[in-house]
Amino acid sequence: MRTPHPLWSAGGIAANGCGLFLLPFIVGGAASLFLETSEVEETGGVLLLLALLFVLPPLALQAVGVVVKVGRERVFLKKAGRLTFADTLASAHRHLRVVTPRGWAALVTGLTFVLLSLGFKWASLGMLAVLSLLLFYGVLGAASFLSTFQVRTFQRGLGRGRAGIRRELSPAVVLAGEEAEERLHLMRVPVPAGFTLLIEDENPPELETESRYAVGAGTRKKEVTLSGRLRKTPRGLHRLGPARIWFQDALGFTRMSVASLATAELKVLPRFRPLDILSPPRSRLEAPDVLTRPHRFANEDHFRFKEYMAGDDTRRIHWRLSIRTGQLQVRQPETREATTRQVVLVLDSYLPKGRMLEDAVGMGRILDSLVECWISLASELTERGDRVTLVAAVDNGRGITVVERLAGDGSDPRRWQDTGARVRWQGEMDLPRVVGTLGSGVHAVAVTARFFPPPPDALQGGADLTWVHLPPEVALGPPEPPFWQVLVGPGPGAPLRLLLGLVRLPAPAGSEENGLSKQLNNFWRAWRGWSARARLRSLARREGQRTRSALEQRGDTLYVIEPGAHGHTLRGLSAGKAGAP
Predict the structure, then answer these.
(1) At the top level of CATH, which class does the domain 164-269 belong to?
(2) Residue 327 DSSP symbol
(3) N-to-C CA span, the chain
(4) What is the pLDDT of residue 301?
(5) Strands across the sheet with 223-229, in order?
(6) Ranges of the chain with pLDDT below 70
(7) What is the CA radius of gyration of the chain?
(8) Phi, then psi, of 151 in degrees rounded to 5
C-alpha cells in the first residue's frame, strides 16, 4: 500500500478536525451575524452548553483513540522496518478520518436545517436540525469510545492466537498463473452490537483484486474464516497489507479504524518454457558461441570393452577383438564432450529513475516475460552441458536491492525460480555494476528488454559480451482493445452491455458503488489505466527499435527473443566483431 505524501496527510488531518468540531460553531457564529436571532438569544447559553456536552466528549475520545492507535501501529511498522514520518502522518489521518460520505451528508444537512430554521423562523425545522445534529454526534461519540477500547483487545490477540485477525495466502508460493486464495481468520473478534467490522485492502494493482469483507457482532464468540480468490497471480514478490480494519455503525455515519496489522506475502514463481535457439550467427572464434549446441567429432569418442552379456546390443560387438580373445566383446563408448566457457546469464533489470512514465502500466508484464526467458535459457544451456551461472539484482526480502549469483551446476531449478520471483525493476545498479562483481575475463550473456541504449562499456577488461534482447513491445502482448470494450468486457453483445451500463446500476441497490462520485472515480481510473498502457506501447515500439539498432552497432553478438504462448524462440541476428565476412 503506497504511503501518501506528508502534505496530503497533514491537510486531511486539518480538514477532518476542523470539519467535525469547529464547523458547527462557525455556522452558528455566521448565523448570529447575518440572521435575525433575537428569539433564541435567551436560550443561547443553554444551546452552547448542550453543544459542548455533545461535541467535546467525541473530540476527546477521538484524540485519545488516534494517539493510542497510531502508537500501536508505529510499533508494528518499526518491527517491520517501514516506519517513516510519512507513515506516521498517514496513520494519524487514517484513524482521524472517521466520518463516511453519508455521515458528512447528515452533518451538512443538520447545519443547513439550522440556517433555514433561523432564516425562516421555523421552530419545527429547528427541532429537527437539533435532533439530527445530536444523533450525529451521539453516534460519533459512541463509535469513538467503542473503537478506542477495542484496540488493546486486537493487539493482545495478535501474536497470542487467542483473539484477533490472521491473514494468510493459500498456497503462499505458486507458479505464475496458478490459483491462490486469500484467507482471513477471525478468532473471537469483539465486534460491538450495532456495528459491523469491515476489512479492506486495495492490494498490489498487478493482482487486480481488492479485498473487501464484512462481519457482524456474531464473531465475538466464534471463529470465522473469510476467503476470496485472487484474479491474477503474475510473477513477483507481492506484499499485501496492512489491511484497513474498520468499525462501521448501523447508520453508516462513521467508520472507526483499528490498527492495521493484517499482512501477508505471496511469492509467484516464473515458469520454465521450452526455448529453441535458431539461426545462430556464424563466428570466427575458435571456441563455440556460448548459445550454440556443441558438436562432437569422431575422434572424440573413447571406448572400453566388456564381455558380452545376454541383452547387450549386438551392434556393439567388436568382432576383431572377440576373435583374438575367444569371447564376445562389446564396446561401451566413453564420450568426452567438448567443453565451453563458463556462461554467465546476467538479467538486466535496470530502469533509470525519471526515464520512464510514472503511470506506465504494463512494465511488470515486460519484466515477467524477461525473467521467464532468462531462466528458460539457463535450463536449455544446462541441458546442453554448459556451466551456467545466473546473476541478477534482486530484492533481498527486506526491500533492499542486492546482486545475487546462483550457480546452475547441480542446483535445484526451484532456486532459479525463487531468484526470478524476487527480481524487480531497479534504478540503483546498471549492467556494468552488476557484471563488475564477477571479475574480469568473464563471457557474459545479458538478457535485456531495454528502452534506452546500453552503456558504452558493459564489461571490464574488454571481455566479449552476448546480448539477448527481448523487444519490449512484443513482451507487452496483444494490443489493448478499444476503451469501450475495457468498460464492458470482451465477447459478443458488448455494444448492448455498453448501452445497459448507462442506465443500470453497477452494484446491488443500496451499495455505495452506485454513487455518482464512485462511478465517475471508477471511470476515471479505467481511463487512466488504458491511456497509460497505450502510451507505454507507443514508447516501447519507438525506443525498442532504437535500442536494437544501438546493440547491432556495438559489435557484440546479438540474439532476439520471440516469446510464444507455449515456448520461446531465440534467433541470432549478428555475430558482431567475431562474425564471418
Answers:
(1) mainly beta
(2) S
(3) 56
(4) 47
(5) 164-170, 181-187, 223-229
(6) 1-3, 32-48, 51, 80-82, 147-163, 220-221, 259-261, 279-306, 332-341, 354-360, 408-411, 439-442, 457-464, 490-491, 494, 498, 501-503, 506-512, 576-581
(7) 34
(8) -60, -45
Q: Does an H or E element contain 116, and which?
A: helix 101-120
Structural contact between residues 542 and 449, judged by C-beta atoms closer than 8 angstroms: no
C-alpha distances in Å from residue 515, one per residue of 39, 356, 524:
40, 35, 14
pLDDT tens for each residue of 484-537: 777 777 667 767 776 776 667 766 666 667 777 777 888 888 888 888 888 889
Q: Which residues are CB-contacts of 187 (< 8 A; sequence separation ≥ 6)? A: 157, 161, 162, 163, 164, 165, 166, 223
**Amino acid at residue number 220:** R
As a whole number of angstroms, the distance between CA 59 and CA 96 comes to 10
Domain extents for the chain?
9-157, 164-269, 275-280+340-479+528-578, 298-335
What amino acid is encoded at 234 in this protein? P
CA–CA gap between residue 334 and residue 336 (Å, rounded): 7
DSSP annotation of 441 reads S
Other Cβ atoms closer than 10 A to 186: 22
State the Cα–Cα distance between residues 167 and 44, nearest whole angstrom.
Answer: 53
DSSP, residue by residue, 160-215 = TSSSEEEEEEESSEEETT---EEEEEEES--PPTTEEEEEEE---GGG---EEEEE
Residue 246 C-beta-side C-alpha neighbours within 13 Å = 23
Task: Write down the pLDDT at residue 300.
Answer: 43
Q: Tell me, what's the pLDDT at 333? A: 60
Residues 262, 296 contacting (CB under 8 angstroms): no
H/E run at residue 227: strand 223-229
Determine phi and psi for 204, rounding to 5 degrees.
-55, 135
Q: What are phi and psi of 430, to 5 degrees?
A: -80, 175
The neighbour count for residue 553, using CB atoms within 10 Å, is: 12
- What span, in angstroms and rounded, lies between the C-alpha atoms of 357 and 536? 8
| CB-count exposure of residue 341 (10 Å: 0-12, 13-18, 19+) | middle
Per-residue pLDDT tens over the stretch 241-271: 888 888 888 888 888 777 666 788 999 999 9
Which phi and psi angles does 321 have, rounded to 5°?
-70, -35
Contacts for 243 with CB less than 8 Å, ≥ 6 apart: 167, 199, 200, 201, 211, 260, 262, 263
Cβ atoms of residues 251 and 104 within 8 Å: no
> Topology of 275-280+340-479+528-578 in CATH?
Rossmann fold (3.40.50)
Cis ω before 280 (30° cut-off from 0):
no
Distance from C-alpha of 72 to C-alpha of 88, rounded to nearest angstrom? 11
